[in-house]
Amino acid sequence: MEKTLFEKIADHEIPADIVYEDEQCVAFRDISPVAPQHVLLVPRKALSSIAAASQEDASLLAHLMLKVGEIARMLGIEEEGFRTVLNTGARAGQTVPHLHIHILGGRDLQWPPG
User: Fold this and answer.
1) Which of 1, 41, 49, 84 reaches 20 to 30 Å from 78, CA-CA?
2) Alpha carbon of 84 to those of 14, 38, 41, 64, 103: distances in Å?
3) 0.90 cut: is pTM over it?
4) For the chain, percent of residues with pLDDT exceeding 70
């Protein structure tokens, strides 16, 4: 099976503005940001979406959630507020079939999101 765009970024095969990485995940700036701070956090493990995760992925998912807060602090948006978004499937706007968490901040974000 061919690697997704995000797997290639995580493996440093495609350049990206990486803001954080460890053995389980990589965070990089979105190439089409919708907020002043717009970072994507992806697991290195190939998971097509949050719906594809299983019980064996519980520790990875917990790791990702903890990293969201750490990355928000790093970006300077933790105190003013930020939004996390996980799109699942085409109707929700998921364009890359690899689990990814959008971390958005640096401006007022409206509700409902769209």
Assistant:
1) 49
2) 24, 10, 10, 11, 5
3) yes
4) 99
